[in-house]
Specification:
Elements (H helix, E strand, L loop, with lengths): L7 H18 L30 H12 L6 E7 L5 E9 L9 H12 L3 E7 L9 H15 L4 E9 L8 E4 L8
Parallel strand pairs: 3-4
Antiparallel strand pairs: 1-2, 1-3, 4-5
Length: 182
Amino acid sequence: MLLEITSEKEMEKIMTERMLSEAKQVDRFIVTEKCVFSVSVRYREAPYPVYHIGSFDAVQDLLGNLFEEQPYEVVYAIALDNSSRFLGFMKIAEGTVNQAKLYLRKILTFLLLDTNATGLILAHNHPGGTAEPSKEDVRLTEKMKEAVEDIEVRLLDHVIYVPGNFGKDPEWVSLLELGYIK
């Protein structure tokens, strides 16, 4: 039987009626049932149509404008499929001048429920101007690589953006190119 459900309330009503009907037939009673679903609440469009993130330059093109003029640290996750096709990106953390707190649960929800991704690129900025990855950056990369491997997602890179200050051009650092991701 195929039902077209148009709202959460309608789904709840149909499920409740069906469950009660089945329970009465076998003299059983349902104590509780949990229904889990995801509803996206915010969308932000990419600065231009993105179809493939196959290079470090593509990451820079996608996120460069988002990092410019940020006075505090922000972290983005880019979701990709097996062919490195772009599925979406999301700001997953906002912090202070020198740190941002990441929550694995938020990243996993984005990867599994929102995009069904098989590849992940993390990217964050260092508004203080230091291009060298911190010990925390390296530790986060290792932890994230292990965590997403358990759900069959590959951490493809962790990118750091350093804004141009005092006549210097902006810099981009790849932890993959530095050898922190194998």
